[in-house]
Amino acid sequence: EILQESKIALHVHPFSLCSGLHTRVLNAAATETFVLSTNTLSLNLEFGDTLGYFDNKTFDDVSQKAEYFLNNEEERYEKARKANEIVTAKHAWKNRARSILEIISF
User: Fold this and answer.
1) pTM value?
2) Residues linked to residue 11 through DSSP beta bridges, in sequence order
């Protein structure tokens, strides 16, 4: 409910999950909430420009990027909608279950 009411979900990707996707990003995208995140290869490969990214070394541009996307509602909404399409198509539980069944069925 909080994510659905939020304009931006701020995400700092854990270093321990550098090659995976965090549920925070997936949940936010599932509710069409725009994600502003540190830039990792896995997020970039999966979501491309449907997320907003900030500098994960200095965090200097977080407030600037957040302000930009708060002031550009149409762009923010469009990115959130496209991220939602990715999550719906590739990361819904039914898709995960299908993948697991394919693996264990040989």
Assistant:
1) 0.84
2) 37
Contacts of 37 (CB under 8 A, 6+ apart): 10, 11, 12, 13, 25, 43, 51, 52, 53, 54
Beta bridge partners of 36: 10, 52
Angle of helix 62-71 relative to helix 73-90, nearest 10 degrees, comes to 100
**Whole-Å CA distances, 35 to 16, 25, 96:** 20, 7, 22
Angle at 75 between CA 52 and CA 39, to 5 degrees: 10
Separation CA 49–CA 51 (nearest Å): 5
How high is the mean pLDDT of the chain? Answer: 90
What mean pLDDT do residues 74-86 have?
98
Strand pairing partners for 10?
Answer: 36
